[in-house]
Amino acid sequence: MQDFPKENVIICRNKKRKGMKHLSSALSCGTLISLLALVVFTLDSCNSSDPEWADPEAHEKTEQLNKQYGKIIIGTWYYEHIGEKHHFTEKLTFHEGGILTGNRRWQTRSLVTIDGKQRYTDWEDLEEMCGTFTGKWRLAYWNGTGAEKHNSLILEATFDNKEKHVSNAYQNDLVFGYANEQTLSINGAFFNDENGWANYQRRNATQ
Fold it and tell me: In 63-130, at which residue ranges do the beta strands (DSSP E only) sit?
C-alpha cells in the first residue's frame, strides 16, 4: 500500500531531552539556563503560526493544485476503452471532503480457432475487477512512485462486495494531467488512449 504524501507533515527539529532534573548537578548555572532557553524556544517554534513543512515545495505546489482543480474535479466522470480483447468502462464520482465512489465493468474475450477458423469468444466479465467501490481521493504534488515529483491524483478504494478475493479497487498514484468542465485527463491505472492518457468525460450522476 502506498502512503499518502508527507508534504503536510510539520517537523519539530529539536526533541525534548530526558532527564532534565539530573543535569543541574553536572552543568554550570549558565549552561543550564541556556539549555532551558533552548527548550522554551523549541516548544514555541512548534506552536508557532508559521510551521516548518517537511517539503515546502511539495506543500506549496499541492496547495496550488487544489486551488486550481480541487473544485472542478468534484462530480462524476466516465471512461470507456474498447480493444480487441478488453472492454473497460468505469464511472468515478469525486465528492467533497475527499470521498470517492465508483463503478467498474471489465470484460475480456479470447481469440480461438474453431474448425480451422479464428474467431473471438463472447465477452465475459472479469468478476474480481468489476463492481462498485468506495474510498478516498486526493490531489497532491509528490513522487510517491519513486519518480520525479509530479501532479498526482491519489486514489484509495475497496470494493463494496467484501466477498471478493481482490478487495482493492484502487491503491494508485495516478499522474494528473488536467481537468476542465468536460474532461478529466489522467494516466490511467489500467488503460490509456493512444495519446497516453485516459480521458474521462463528465457525466451526470444518474448516467
Answer: 75-82, 86-94, 99-108, 111-114, 117-120, 124-125
Query: Contact, 152 vs 141, CB < 8 A?
Result: yes
Rounded distance between C-alpha atoms, residue 81 and residue 199, angstroms: 10
* Residue 130, C-alpha cell as written in the block: 468489476
- Residue 165 binned pLDDT confidence (cut-offs 50, 70, 90): confident
107-116 pLDDT, tens digit each: 999 999 988 8
Q: How many angstroms separate the CA atoms of 46 and 87, rounded?
A: 53
User: Left (φ > 0), alpha (ψ -120 to 50) or beta: where does 131 sit?
Assistant: left
Extended strands (E) in 127-207: 131-142, 150-159, 168-179, 183-186, 198-203
